[in-house]
Amino acid sequence: MGAAEPAEHVVVYEERGNVAWITLNRPDKLNALNRTVFAELGRALDRLEASEAAVVGVLSGEGRAFAAGADIQDYVGISVGEYRAFMDVGRAVSDRIASLRKPVIAAVRGFALGGGFELVLACDLVIAADNARLGLPETKLGLVPGGGGTQRLPRLVGKMRATELMITGRFLTAEEAHAWGIVNQVVPKDELLERAAELAAAVAAQAPGAVSTIKRIVREGADAPLPTALSLEQDATARLIVSDDALEGIAAFIEKRQPNFGGGQ
Question: Which of 52, 62, 138, 164 is catalytic?
Answer without folding.
Answer: 138
